[in-house]
Design goal:
There is one protein chain. The chain is of the alpha/beta class and 201 residues long. The protein has one domain: TIM Barrel, CATH 3.20.20.70. The protein has eight helices and eight strands, in the order E-H-E-H-E-H-E-H-H-E-E-E-H-E-H-H. Strands 1-2-3-4-5-6-7-8 form an eight-stranded parallel barrel. It starts with a strand and ends with a helix.
């Protein structure tokens, strides 16, 4: 299973240093999601991240910064994607961008072949959004889609103890936010614990 970390939507003390530490600990993908940040604030954060890690970052906002920073991974939140025409994201894919998106149901997933993966959730009760609870039925399992894009990543309430359940449901990976940023001072050890859990199931 893949392990993706989503940044805190709010500013975090020593955030760039923590992100660098996560990458150094083996993080393969960070989604930079800062809905309240302007372009300059995002640039300031990016400038504090080691350039060697830019190829592991996906931008949720201010996609135009991708060219300046050599970032080719772009994320389109569900509400943004739904306002786009299919040819618009297919054009981005044709230009060499790696695309991801999010969904709360699987309607229309067959049209999303330009996307490498999507976030689906909440799979479990969210750690970062009180009241944002799982709506999945007991015994939920993804339909098997061999060799079909996009891959599906579980999001919402991911903790070490429920990672085996997410895998049993058929998810290709997990994305975490609250588990990492709930206690930023423990972010790296928490990440390592999550990764160790994945490696042992």
């Amino acid at each position: 299973m893949q392990l993706i970390v989503i940044s805190s939507p709010e500013k975090v003390a020593d955030e760039a240093a923590i992100i660098n530490g996560l990458f150094q600990a083996g993080l393969s993908r960070l989604h930079l999601r800062k809905p309240g940040s302007n372009q300059q604030q995002l640039c300031t954060l990016l400038d504090g991240i080691d350039h060697a890690f830019y190829n592991r970052i996906a931008l949720h906002q201010h996609h135009e910064l991708g060219q300046a920073y050599g970032i080719t991974r772009l994320h389109y939140p569900e509400q943004v994607r739904k306002k786009m025409m299919q040819y618009e994201w297919e054009d981005q894919y044709a230009k060499g961008h790696s695309l991801s998106t999010s969904m709360h149901d699987f309607e229309g997933i067959a049209t999303l072949t330009a996307f490498d993966y999507l976030f689906f959730g909440p799979v479990f009760n969210s750690l970062s959004k009180p009241g944002y609870n799982s709506r999945l039925p007991l015994g939920f399992s993804l339909e098997k889609r061999p060799d079909i894009k996009p891959q599906v990543m579980a999001i919402g309430g991911i903790e070490p103890q429920n990672i085996p359940t997410a895998k049993a449901m058929g998810f290709d990976g997990i994305a975490v936010l609250g588990a990492i940023w709930g206690q930023p001072e423990k972010a790296i050890s928490t990440f390592e614990n999550l990764q160790d859990t994945i490696n042992t199931i």
